[in-house]
Specification:
This protein has 117 residues and is α+β, with helices and mostly antiparallel strands. It has one domain. The protein has helices spanning 10-20, 36-42, 46-51, 65-74, 79-85, 88-109, 111-116; strands at residues 2-5, 28-31, 54-57, 60-63. It has a 4-stranded mixed sheet, with helices on both faces. A hairpin with a 2-residue loop joins strand 3 and strand 4. It is globular, with a radius of gyration of 14 Å. The chain starts with a strand and ends with a helix. 17% of the residues are buried.
Length: 117
């Protein structure tokens, strides 16, 4: 499984570093910052990658809240989050909150798009 995240975002990096500490060998962490490989691998452009977390398992790419569910499912310490947030009504609320937070993080970090063009 590959997790595509924005290393240059301090908030994103802090959260991902918590997950990295679990040393799950099946997870490869891929920084999307100035990374054409990430664009090809996910079939997403830099703007889309910057906007949401992406997780690729096999040939499937999950984006946003669904990506977090898969990530949490793979990390024993955080598996409880998977079970809680996969409950349909909870997932719907999580999805809405995630999109709001992701949007503001995108606005905070979108200067990367200008710098990288």
């Amino acid at each position: 499984m590959k997790v595509f995240y924005n290393e240059s975002c301090s908030i994103c990096r802090a959260e991902i570093n918590l997950y990295k500490k679990q040393n799950i060998k099946e997870i490869e962490w891929v920084d999307i910052t100035q990374n054409k490989y990430a664009e090809k691998e996910t079939l997403q452009d830099n703007r889309a990658l910057l906007r949401r977390l992406h997780v690729k398992e096999g040939n499937e790419v999950l984006i946003g809240a669904k990506a977090f569910l898969l990530l949490w499912k793979k990390i024993p310490k955080y598996k409880f989050l998977y079970y809680f947030f996969k409950i349909p009504i909870i997932f719907h609320l999580f999805l809405i909150c995630y999109e709001i937070i992701a949007y503001f993080l995108y606005l905070k970090n979108k200067k990367q798009l200008i710098e990288n063009n």
